[in-house]
Specification:
The structure is a homodimer. Chain A has two domains: 327 residues, Metallo-beta-lactamase, Chain A (4-Layer Sandwich); 36 residues, no CATH class. Chain A is built from ten helices and 17 strands. In chain A, helix 10 links the parallel strand 15 and strand 16. In chain A, helix 9 packs across helix 10. The two termini of chain A are 26 Å apart. The model of chain A has no long low-confidence stretch (mean pLDDT 94). Chains A and B meet through helix 1, helix 2, helix 3 and helix 4 of A and helix 1, helix 2, helix 3 and helix 4 of B.
Chain lengths: 387, 387
């Protein structure tokens, strides 16, 4: 739970920005969202814990993990991360009891929550079993079930793991999406399918409406005139209406929509999430392959923008132009391109050649989109802001 | 297959030397053995492919992978490594056929061979299935079954994976060990149980006998005297006997034993492998915890050598003294200590403080052993030599 006092920080740190294979400058997919001091992780490719060690993200603060799809480059880091986070290494010699064998499932021991498509739970349960891994704290897996998925069951013949909470939900779609899979008083998460080579989802993180901008000069004279305590200012700030001693009613400024962050997994067509994602303050969209004939020496002589797009789509992915077009469609205010092929190094902060390539990729996205565009690199951090 | 012409290089590269959790200077367990140009891997903790990228080991040359036990810190890097080695990333969009769906199982497509205890096959098969991973070349898993294991079956309800060869063997023990689980004309591998918190094995890699040292002065006068072709020298070098024209018989120098390398997994008592491991030229032995009262600020005031050893053993591990005692018992010529707690950084090549600690650890092992002792660090490389 993020807390009741509202969000100050809503900060994204890219822990990995590579598609498929890691390079020396980009790791597999993972993204940390910091909400005040809590951390939510989106995807968890191999060596995400190594990236966390090198970043400012605190592993012990991770409360929830959202998986977009179960391809290895998005999930192979999950079991080792759980083992490190939750005291899951090692075991005891014969005759020495391991205290982790009997997990305390009580309200003081709130499980790490993991969300993902069908197979997420089975992957974790099987992986923990065959590696003899016991965790020092529980976890729970909530699965987003597609209409073609079995609506119930765990998709594995293995029974519940000793460290697994039995409260994992199988969440069916409502009108083609998964609304409010998590919510508290200040934040909610919804999900929707996006098209890829395997079942894949995007996540929409929405902040509850926040207090409107308040002009004190509009209220203070009235409060003074009626000798009303200045303490009502905080009620007005929250958007409430206050009746004064003389019957005058003051109306606080109407609450404004909170921030909206959209994080997509791999996709060649995210249209099913368009409505939920509408007016995002920040959209993270993959851009695996680009056609850069003058810059990329690997360009084939017969390649065209059309042929590269067709090949990219056939593998379930997007070009920068496709990402830009989607950002324009939903009216996103800031587009962060992510999930680049290993052929595009991620050291564009120090290498002029790489910088030229990433700028060219951003320009391709800008052909269809006029908002702010950023190309992600590992350890890049950015705030989600009302633009 | 290593080849028929004998081994020149027999080189070990330590890709990870940490127990349990990685640090900035030590990764999880993995070790590459280079035999001429082939590579065999022993254990494969998370981010082993990242370590390979930073080393001189060639991923594409890996032919066999030996797992000592299925604890996560020894196996979590295996699936992502297979995916990277064997073109296992990604997939295709709806309506586009994935050529990896139908694996060609023929003799030209020799599978990557993986050896490990019960659960290795199930771990891989389940992990590939739930991550939708198809490989571009086949793999096979041979399991070393303990007497208490089921002798048959795959230990999972899942059927064979599309990329998995059906020729995986379940290898029973013979007299308490697994002799010759692999052999060709110049190298063989045997395995034996070692005691840990979960079923765990050690591997013994033995080179076939090699030609003895030859003194040409002993043969050349005889060959000249009898006008025998000098080409028989190569037969003599191989240890053969040659009859000359006058009936004299020359005997080549007797073949000497080849090199022997012993790689142990985690253990608090490796005695079941002692006989197989006898007279090893190089022994890799874990030394997870040490009592270093003057050097390690985390030392508890009540700790003694005895209490640290008892705690270490209760978790299935060894101290340097235990490693030294075993090296002395089997008559090993070179002991490499490995698998250190995260509290011992691995940058002792550049940091004098760390160097002092690693030297102290080596001295503890030397209390019971007078041979050569080396403390492993990541990317350290050493040849297996007849000492």
């Amino acid at each position: 739970m993020v807390g009741r006092r509202g969000l100050s920080a809503l900060n994204l740190t890219f822990l990995g920005t590579a598609s498929a294979q890691p390079s020396l400058t980009r790791n597999h997919s993972a993204l940390a969202l910091r909400l005040n001091s809590d951390v939510w992780l989106f995807d968890c490719g191999e060596a995400t814990q190594h990236q966390i060690q090198k970043s400012k993200v605190k592993m012990g603060k991770i409360e929830k993990i959202f998986i977009t799809h179960t391809h290895g480059d998005h999930i192979f880091g999950l079991l080792p991360l759980l083992a490190s986070m939750l005291n899951g290494a090692g075991g005891t010699a014969d005759g020495v009891e391991d205290p982790r064998t009997h997990m305390v499932q009580d309200s003081d021991n709130r499980p790490i929550e993991i969300y993902g498509p069908l197979g997420t739970r089975a992957y974790i349960r099987n992986g923990l079993k065959y590696t003899h891994t016991l965790l020092g704290a529980p976890y729970v897996v909530h699965e987003l079930r597609f209409p073609s998925d079995p609506p119930d069951g765990d998709y594995t013949s293995l029974t519940l793991h000793a460290s697994e909470s039995p409260n994992g939900r199988n969440i069916p779609q409502t009108n083609g999406v998964w609304p409010d899979i998590y919510h508290d008083t200040i934040i909610s998460v919804s999900a929707a399918p996006i098209l890829h080579s395997v079942p894949c989802v995007g996540y929409v993180v929405s902040e509850a409406p926040v207090p409107g901008k308040m002009d004190p000069a509009k209220y203070i004279p009235e409060l003074k005139r009626t000798k009303t305590s200045m303490s009502v200012m905080s009620r007005l700030q929250q958007g409430e209406s206050v009746e004064l001693a003389d019957g005058t009613v003051l109306h606080g400024p109407p609450r404004r929509p909170g921030r909206k962050l959209v994080i997509l997994g791999d996709t060649y067509d995210p249209s099913p999430i368009a409505e939920l994602a509408s007016s995002a303050d920040l959209l993270v969209h993959e851009a695996t392959n680009a056609h850069l004939p003058a810059l990329d020496p690997n360009t084939k002589s017969e390649d065209t923008f059309e042929s590269v797009e067709a090949r990219t789509k056939s593998r379930g992915h997007s070009t920068p132009q496709m990402a830009g077009a989607f950002a324009a469609w939903i009216g996103a205010r800031h587009l962060v391109l992510n999930h680049f092929s290993a052929r595009y190094p991620g050291n564009d902060d120090v290498n002029p050649m790489t910088k030229t390539i990433m700028e060219a990729i951003a320009r391709l996205a800008g052909e269809h989109y006029s908002g702010k565009i950023t190309c992600a690199r590992d350890f890049m951090s950015c705030d989600v802001e009302h633009v």
